[in-house]
Amino acid sequence: MKFTSIALTSTLTATSFGNPIPEDDNMIQKRATSCTVSAYSSVSSAKSSCTSITLSNIAVPAGKTLDLTGLKSGQVVTFAGRTTFGYKEWEGPLVSVSGTDVKIIGASGSVLDGEGSRWWDGKGGNGGKTKTKFFAAHSLKSSSIASVTIKDSPVQVFSFSSATSVTVTKPTINNKNGDTNSLGHNTDAFDIGNSDHITIDGATVYNQDDCLAINSGTNIIFTNGYCSGGHGLSIGSVGGRSNSVVDTVTISNSQIVNSDNGIRVKTVSGATGSVKGVTYSNITLNGIKKYGIVIQQDYENGSPTGTPTNGVKIDKLKLSGVTGTVTSSATNVYILCRIYLEVDLVTARPYSQGFPILQIRNASIANVTTTTNSDADPQGWNTKTLSDLPKIDSARAQLSILNSAYSYHGIFIVHDELREVPTSNVLFSRKINALDPELEGTAEDVFKVFQDFLTAHPTETVLCSIKWDYDRSGQPSDFESLLESLFNDGSHGSWYTSSTFPKLDDARGKIVLIRRYNENLGFYMDVSNNTPDHTDSTGQFRVQDIYNPSTLPDGTPNYDTKWNAVKNFLNTRQPFNSSQLNLNCLSAVKIEGINVLYKPAFWANEINARMRTWLGTIETQTANLGIVAMDFPDVPGSDWSFSVK
C-alpha cells in the first residue's frame, strides 16, 4: 500500500508499514478513511479510498479542473489553506462537484483564489480573453456546501445545474478587486438552472453581476444574503433554454448594497416559458444605481428598453417589505411587460412619472418604500410611498386594456352618460333617491378635471363613454356643439381626434371619447336599451349595459338577472381578443317597472362581490385581455377590493 503525497491524519507505526500483511485490515481501512491531500495529482486516489478528504493548499495546474465529480455517498471534502489555479484561457470550470449525500466544507481561513485579474479585461463573457467559470455543482443531490470562500473569480462563480436538494450555507464570494477600473464583468455569484430544492442561506457577495440568477428551477430559497456591487437578486433571464420554467421561489431577509439593480425579473424577448410563484420579502436596498425594482419582458443582455413579449408568462409575483434608497439618477420602479391585469391600483402604482402601472397578472406589491438621495425632485415622486400616490376618484371606474402593439399603461374610464339640460349645461343631473340632494356637474368642470389630471400625469389616458340622451322634458338635445366648444377652448392638444382605433402609445396624455350613439365619425356604438351583448358594425366594440334589471315576484331586485347577463358576457369574451374593446357597466340605475333611481352601492354591493369571486376562478391563457369596468369600487359598503391575491 503506497501513501506517497497523501498524509494520513491517523498515525501509522513503522511496524505497520513494514509488515506486508496488516495486523488488522479493518483498522487500516478505518485509519485510511480520513486523508489530507496536498498535491493535485493525488486527488483522484483520495476520492476512491477516503471518506473524509482535506484538500490542503492544492495548486491546480493551468487548464485543469479540480475534479470532485462522482463523490461517494457520505464523503466529506474540506478545503483548507489557499487553493490556487494556473492561468490558461479556457472555459473551465476550475472546480467541479457531483454526487449524492456529500458535504463540501470550507475550513476556517481557507480560500479558493481564482486570481481573476489575469483574465479580467472588462468584457466578461462577451469577448476578449476566454475566461474560465469557477465552481460547477452539476448533478449534485441531497448534499451541502458550507462556509466556502471564493476570491477573484474570472467570470461566473457557482453554477447549479440538474441539482436536487442542495443546501449552501454561509458562502463568501469576494470579487472586490474586479471593481478596479471596472475590469471584472459577468461575475454572477449563483446561477441556478434546471434544479429543484436549492437553498442558499447567509451568502456574502461582492461582485459585478447578478448576486442570484435563477434561469430555471423549482423550490428555490435565498435568504439572509448580503449582495454588494452587482446587479441584484434576479429571476432570469428566463427563456430560450430547454427548461424555461421558474416556479416557487422565495427570496427573503436580504440586503442589496451599491448595486446596479435591487430586485430584477427578466424574461427573454420572443421566447417561451413561465415564471410563477416568486416572492420577494423583507429586502433592503441601499444606494441602488439604476433600478430599485425592474421587471422586464424584453431582456436582450441589456437595459429594459426594448419591446416586451409575453411568451414567458409572469404569474403570482409578490413583493413585500421592500425598503431602501436609490441614487439620484436611478429609477425606483421600472416595469415593461406585454401582458397584464391591473392589480391593486394604489399599491401597484410605481413611484416615478412616466412608468407604467404594474402589468403582471396575479401580482401583488405591499409595503414597498424607496427614497432617493437627491433633493432635485420638485414633485416629490421619488420620496413617496405607494400609498401616497394619487388614487382614482370613487365615481370613476377602472379599466385595463391590451392592444395589438404596445401595452404599457392603465386607462381611467368614465361611463356616466353625457347629458345636456337646456340653459344649464349640466353633464348629469338626477336624484339618487327622494332623500338625497340633486347631483349635478357641468361638462366644463368634468373635462377640466380630466385635463388637469393629464397635465400632471402625461402618460395616462382618460376614456370617456358618452351617450346621446334626453333632457327632463323628454326632448333630445344636441351636445356636439358643447363638445366643440370644449375642444376649441385651447385644450385641444389633450384630445384624441383620429377616427381609427387607438393604440395606447397614441392616446397617452389624451381624452378618448367613445360615442354610444349612431354617428359615422370617430367611434360609434348604436346600443339599444338593456342589450345583453352588442357589437358595433366595425367589430371593434362589444358592450353590455343592463341599467334596469327585472324584479323578483315579491318586487325586490333580481340580482341574478343582472349578474347572469354580466357573467355570460364575460365568458363569451374568452379567449379575449385584442382587436375588440369590451365594455360592461356592472351597476344599474333602477329596477324595471320601478321609477326610482338608486344609489351606486345598491348594485355594487352585490354585483362587485360576485365579480370579484368570478375573477378568482379564471386563469387567463392569452395576452389579449378584455375589459372589465369596475363600477364605484370605492363606495363604502360596496365590498369591492380591486386586487388579485
TrEMBL record:
<dbReference type="GO" id="GO:0045490">
    <property type="term" value="P:pectin catabolic process"/>
</dbReference>
<keyword id="KW-0961">Cell wall biogenesis/degradation</keyword>
<dbReference type="GO" id="GO:0008081">
    <property type="term" value="F:phosphoric diester hydrolase activity"/>
</dbReference>
<keyword id="KW-0964">Secreted</keyword>
<dbReference type="InterPro" id="IPR012334">
    <property type="entry name" value="Pectin_lyas_fold"/>
</dbReference>
<feature type="active site">
    <location>
        <position position="231"/>
    </location>
</feature>
<dbReference type="GO" id="GO:0071555">
    <property type="term" value="P:cell wall organization"/>
</dbReference>
<dbReference type="InterPro" id="IPR000743">
    <property type="entry name" value="Glyco_hydro_28"/>
</dbReference>
<dbReference type="InterPro" id="IPR006626">
    <property type="entry name" value="PbH1"/>
</dbReference>
<dbReference type="InterPro" id="IPR050434">
    <property type="entry name" value="Glycosyl_hydrlase_28"/>
</dbReference>
<protein>
    <recommendedName>
        <fullName>endo-polygalacturonase</fullName>
        <ecNumber>3.2.1.15</ecNumber>
    </recommendedName>
</protein>
<dbReference type="GO" id="GO:0005576">
    <property type="term" value="C:extracellular region"/>
</dbReference>
<keyword id="KW-0732">Signal</keyword>
<dbReference type="InterPro" id="IPR017946">
    <property type="entry name" value="PLC-like_Pdiesterase_TIM-brl"/>
</dbReference>
<dbReference type="InterPro" id="IPR011050">
    <property type="entry name" value="Pectin_lyase_fold/virulence"/>
</dbReference>
<keyword id="KW-0677">Repeat</keyword>
<keyword id="KW-1015">Disulfide bond</keyword>
<dbReference type="Pfam" id="PF00295">
    <property type="entry name" value="Glyco_hydro_28"/>
</dbReference>
<dbReference type="GO" id="GO:0006629">
    <property type="term" value="P:lipid metabolic process"/>
</dbReference>
<keyword id="KW-0378">Hydrolase</keyword>
<comment type="similarity">
    <text>Belongs to the glycosyl hydrolase 28 family.</text>
</comment>
<dbReference type="GO" id="GO:0004650">
    <property type="term" value="F:polygalacturonase activity"/>
</dbReference>
<keyword id="KW-0326">Glycosidase</keyword>
